[in-house]
Amino acid sequence: MTFKIGTRGSQLAIAQSEWVKKKIETRHPHIHVELIRIKTTGDKMLDTPLSQIGGKALFVKEIEEALRGKAVDLAVHSLKDVPAELPAGLMLSATPKREDPRDAFVSVKYQTIQGLPRGARVGTSSLRRKAQLLTIRHDLEIVPLRGNVDTRLRKLKAGEIQAIILAAAGLKRLGIEKHITHVIPSLQMLPAIGQGALGLEVRRDDEMTVRLLKFLNHEVTEVTVKAERAFLRELEGGCQVPIAAFSRLRDGVLHLSGMVSELDGSHTVKDEISGEKEQAEQMGVTLAKKLLHSGADRILAHIYKRS
């Protein structure tokens, strides 16, 4: 039996899909897994900020089309790239154990964000990171930075920028965590929704694949990202808005932090709630409404009006 995984062609996407492939073949020796590389719109348009061309959904659209058309049996995504609303007929069937969800500060000369010289240039393609960086250090110059990890590291080493912010999970999955200068605490920089987690997307009516992947699901990760994605869905947030959420399960209690910010970090609405893990999705909705009532509605209206 041949099983086809649809994946982006980036080094990180392949590493993630190879990990899933190995897990499936080890668990089900009778299955041969094949990776189908699919070039997405997001991979083709590297010279434009994502917020100007449609957001992170551009990294999954073509793969989802292949999945719906039965050209592949499974799509492996970085969950932070997957919109809160999935196309009709598709579902996330399993969520493997999450890697480190935090952001990583990477620099050749400096050890932390606070240690950067005044006016330092920091590279990031994320509006969420930009807003939080400017909240911490309003004097920083945030430089839009896209491309693969190697491209970003080259610009850093060439002195074009003094630091870059990347997902710690991606560097660890690529085996190059040696480049991490400092892992930024989530209290200082709230991660992207689903950051560090993989999303295994399948056709809703493909019961065989759903059963086949069930062993990969990690309950704690499933619960925490469910809360985060419900928060995003309630806010109807896209890539044009700095939105972040991070959920943790400790001693049976689910904690969820969320944030909505102006693009320049000048005004941020942030809060946290706790509850039972069985109420994960409802907690996401509740926290989103709480932030909206605290001023996030005005931030969202302001940003969407400008864009």
How much strand content do the residues show? Answer: 15-25%
* Averaged pLDDT: 92
CATH architecture of the largest domain: 3-Layer(aba) Sandwich
The first-level CATH class name of the largest domain: Alpha Beta
Q: Give the helix level as a range of percent.
A: 25-40%
What can be said about the biggest beta sheet? 5 strands, mixed
Which residues sit in consecutive blocks of at least 5 with pLDDT less than 50?
Answer: none
Strand order in space, largest sheet = 2-1-3-10-4
Could you please describe the fold and organization of this structure?
- By secondary structure, the chain is an alpha/beta fold.
- The protein has three domains: 1-96 and 197-217, 3-Layer(aba) Sandwich (D-Maltodextrin-Binding Protein, domain 2), CATH 3.40.190; 103-183, 3-Layer(aba) Sandwich (D-Maltodextrin-Binding Protein, domain 2), CATH 3.40.190.10; 219-307, 2-Layer Sandwich (Double Stranded RNA Binding Domain), CATH 3.30.160.
- The chain has ten helices and 13 strands.
- It has helices at residues 11-27, 41-44, 50-53, 61-68, 127-136, 149-157, 168-173, 207-213, 219-235, 280-306, and strands spanning 2-7, 32-37, 74-78, 90-94, 103-106, 121-123, 141-143, 163-167, 182-183, 198-203, 243-250, 253-261, 268-276.
- The strands form three sheets. The protein has a five-stranded mixed beta sheet with strand order 2-1-3-10-4, sandwiched between helices. It has a five-stranded mixed beta sheet with strand order 7-6-8-5-9, sandwiched between helices.
- Strand 11 and strand 12 (253-261) form a beta hairpin.
- The longest helix is centred in the C-terminal third of the chain and has 27 residues, at 280-306.
- It is globular, with a radius of gyration of 19 Å.
